[in-house]
Amino acid sequence: MTIAGDSARVEARRQRGRARELRLQADEADARAGRFEIAHRTEGETAKILAPLAGIGYHLLADRRWPGSRTAQVDMVVVGRAGVFIVDTKSWREVAVHGDRITRGQEDVTDDVARLADLAYSAESALADIGLPPGEVHAVVALAGQKKMHARVASVDVVGVHDLIGHITNPGARLSAGRVEEVVKAVMTHFPVIGDDPLPLTQIVVPAAVLPRDAEPTLFTPELEAQLTAGVLDAPIEDWMAFLDPTQAKLVRRNFNGPARIRGAAGTGKTVVGLHRAAYLARATGGRVLFATYISTLPKVLSSLFERLAPDMAGRVEFTSVHALARRVLSERGIPFRIAEREARLAFNDAWNAIRASSPLRSERFTRRYWEDEIKHVIKGRGLTRFDQYADLARVGRKYALPVEARQAVWDLYEAYSRGLRERRVTDWEDIVLLARDAMAEVPLDGFDAVIVDEAQDLSCAMVSLLHSIVGDRPDGLTLIGDGQQTIYPGGYTLGEVGISLAGRGVVLDVNHRNTAEILDFAKGMVAEDQFVDIEGVDGVGDTVADVTRTGPEPVIHRSRWRAEHDVAMLARVTEVLRLVGVGVGDVGILTATNPQAAKVAEALAKAGVSVVTLDNYKGKTVDAVKVGTIKRAKGLEFKQVLLAHVPGKLLDVVSGDPSEVERERRELDRRELYVGMTRARDGLWVGVTGGGHDPSSTAFRP
């Protein structure tokens, strides 16, 4: 039975409930309005502070739409020669950073910062389409009213707003003016302008919060002016450090679910991608990256380049040669070793001299060097310990199929050499790697989240196994970079021997950005008929180049009968190229096959009054001196002008007769080395030939 007045009581309760909801909504709207008023004030303060950047070519894009959101906005995106900066202003007080967490008072606001990191990540992906590397996109939380504050949380820089100009200009001139305009267009597409949407009729409007008026920020204090000009006065970096082609830029950020390989012909930017990827992985993982290579002098050069490419990550990426890493592991773990190259040579001399004249190793078909390489690269490069392992080995990279009797003789030589080392208590370089590999198999090397290996084709099985053990098969753990056509050491290996599966995680770069078409066409003649077993275990003939972006003069071949005649022509060439616009002394590299040849070249230059720096002493810094060294030392480097000195004419002659497999193998290795040397040249190539009967007009120079 309904009691009189019940319906009125129910309605009264409903209305009171609705009133409470409206009051709550009003309170929430009032609070939101207050926050927006604060945001308006603080964002305005940030805009005024950053305004002077417009006077030095920066673009300040304010109030942009947050991609993927209907309501969220980006306070400001700054684009200029220092890169792209996504700025979010916060009026936080009592800010504290605890490891990877950030708080304002008692509130954890790490998720707010992480959302900005995600926004920057999406911008990296979008801007990769125009070739901007991920390291040129920066997320910044600007703390209103604060200065002398700088922390990093979730790949986002947290700085006081009064330090913001210095933070933005600090990287210096990384993008050219033309590149900046290209980036601005892409940024405006990715972050569109927020439209003036009509106010929904259902939205509750509350009075604006009354906020105290702060003093206008002082724009041109001496401190702010110093921040404004510091980065602008820095010398611009090389274009490749701040701009890649889109394929390269996307590859830098690509995720792999296991070991991966980046390959491509000379000049396609493999090492460049590797350096950018090292910086990207260091930022993405928050950990450390190991960048390893075979050449002992290359790490210091790459490290110097990396300090300019990604100064913020310089402390998180370590550059090393494999041998230096192995020595460090042994030293840190107290494992004894003693390197004495002279004594090691004596040990091999004794073992070699003890071989009977009837031994198959004494055949005229072979040289002593062939058997030294067999032991160094084939046996010790794999760490073989039993003859049966060697007896059944495929011997990747060696042309001559050794019968079992010859293999037994090689094994006897190897054992005699090993005894000689033990008697002298000497360790050779191959043993250093094997000792470190075994030590790391027992106790893995910690501290690295990723390993990048440059010139991977030059490593041995044991070296790759050592590096693989650091990260295993974890996602984005191991990246191998190289080109089988640039293998200049005898022997070889396949990834299957090491237990590494790429499973489709291989990428080929096919656009040559370094060489002119004329230089590349000439160099390809050295390897036109070259065949090799790639590290993936398949027969290869070299990766093709789909496009060459530059053209220039034809390479010059100069033929001399005597060294003195050769050196006169070489010095004349140096003088000639230094007259070219844009070519300085430091842009010239003179490369040889051997260290004695390099020493003689350096001596000839010094006598002529030309400044010289040897590649052994070159550290990657700009230097006004001609760089001189072996082709092996020049791997991974490039020069505007390259002179190949004292090239044996026989390497350019057409082969007569029917060479043996041993002779063919040696010739292919030597011509590959010439190919490597020639492809170090960006704009000009001079080849100084001595000996031989080659006609420079012969088609033997052509592919």
List its salient traits.
703 residues; alpha/beta; Rossmann fold; 4 domains; six-stranded mixed beta sheet; 22 helices; 25 strands; globular
How would you portray this structure in words?
This protein folds into 4 domains: 23-230, no CATH class; 244-335 and 448-509, Rossmann fold; 341-426; 548-701, P-loop containing nucleotide triphosphate hydrolases (Rossmann fold). A hairpin with a 2-residue loop joins strand 4 and strand 5. The longest helix has 45 residues, at 6-50. Mean pLDDT is 87; it is low at 31-40, 196-220 and 693-703. The protein is an alpha/beta fold and 703 residues long. The chain is built from 22 helices and 25 strands. A 6-stranded mixed beta sheet has the order 1-2-3-7-9-8. The radius of gyration is 32 Å and the shape is globular. Helix 18 runs antiparallel to helix 22.
Short description:
The protein is α/β, with parallel strands linked by helices and 703 residues long. Helices cover 40% and strands 18% of the residues.
List the uncertain runs: 31-40, 196-220, 693-703
Shape: globular
Kindly name the structural category: alpha/beta
How many helices? 22
Radius of gyration, whole Å: 32 Å
Main pleated-sheet profile: 6 strands, mixed
What is the first-to-last residue Cα distance?
A: 106 Å
Strand order of the largest sheet: 1-2-3-7-9-8
Q: How many strand elements?
A: 25
Relative helix content: 40-55%
Tally of distinct domains: 4
Beta-strand residue percentage: 15-25%
Mean pLDDT: 87
